[in-house]
Design goal:
By secondary structure, the chain is mainly α. The protein has helices at about 5-45, 50-60, 80-90, 90-100, 130-140, 140-155, 160-170, 185-190, 195-200, 205-220, 220-230, and strands at about 105, 115. It has a domain at about 15-175: Ankyrin repeat-containing domain (Serine Threonine Protein Phosphatase 5, Tetratricopeptide repeat, Alpha Horseshoe), CATH 1.25.40. Helix 3 (about 80-90) packs antiparallel against helix 4 (about 90-100), helix 5 runs antiparallel to helix 6 (about 140-155) and helix 10 packs antiparallel against helix 11. The protein is elongated and about 95 Å long.
């Protein structure tokens, strides 16, 4: 090796290292901005600020299926998504937008239409093992809960979201939380009369009877207890 070329080689290596360091700093700044935007998105959803939330998601092209902050120490299976937070506080328009965001379509030369669904997941479970539908019920967001029930009933089996709506938005199926709470039980817990009325329609007679008995024993929520008695098949027990 010609040692006279050593300074040139060192300069080239130093230049390459400087460029790598610069790129690393830029990537770190980008990641920090993205993390901040993700955190702000959750805050806007919590506040029910649908308009600003949509602008922020589009500006940073945020992944609506990601958690607020990833736990670096362990893999998180269940975490709160933007859809969970929005279902509790935001409007139906934003709900529909989140559910449709990221849906892509492709046509295969052989066979039927191929669809890949990567939008907000209506069957995702939060740490309490509740879906966005269950969160909407607990928070008393009746318009959103009604919309999710409608999607459960009317989404065609060919739609890639069909199974997610079946799993996450069933109006009478028990949740996977530790109490196996039914939608009606969550509605009663919310104390929202309109929500109770909405979920009473699909609740089983057995579940309604049990809920009524529990309210009678506690002597609370008489208005809700009287509403439960309007369900055909429920018997008043003195």
């Amino acid at each position: 090796m010609d040692f006279s070329d050593k300074p040139i080689l060192e300069r080239e290596q130093a230049k390459e290292q400087a460029e790598n360091d610069c790129r690393a700093r830029e990537e770190a700044r980008d990641q920090a901005r993205l993390a901040s935007a993700q955190n702000n998105a959750f805050q806007l959803a919590k506040e029910g600020n649908s308009a600003e939330l949509r602008v922020l998601i589009e500006k940073f092209d945020l992944n609506v299926t990601k958690p607020r902050k990833l736990n670096q120490k362990k893999a998180e299976i269940n975490f709160e998504t933007l859809l969970h937070v929005a279902a509790g506080s935001c409007d139906v328009t934003l709900l529909d937008w989140l559910l449709s965001r990221g849906t892509t379509f492709g046509i295969s030369a052989i066979g039927p239409l191929l669809t890949i669904y990567i939008g907000a997941n209506p069957s995702a479970l939060d740490p309490s093992h509740l879906t966005p539908f269950h969160v909407a019920i607990l928070r008393g967001n009746t318009p959103v809960a009604r919309r999710l029930i409608s999607l459960y009933r009317n989404t065609k089996s060919t739609d890639p979201r069909y199974q997610s709506f079946c799993d996450g938005c069933h109006p009478s199926k028990a949740a996977k939380d530790r109490n196996a709470s039914t939608p009606l039980e969550l509605a009663i817990k919310s104390g929202n009369i309109d929500m109770v009325e909405l979920l009473l329609k699909d609740a089983t007679v057995h579940n309604v009877q049990r809920c009524w008995s529990q309210l009678e024993q506690r002597g609370t929520n008489k208005m809700i207890a009287d509403m439960l008695l309007t369900k055909v098949g429920v018997i008043y027990q003195s």
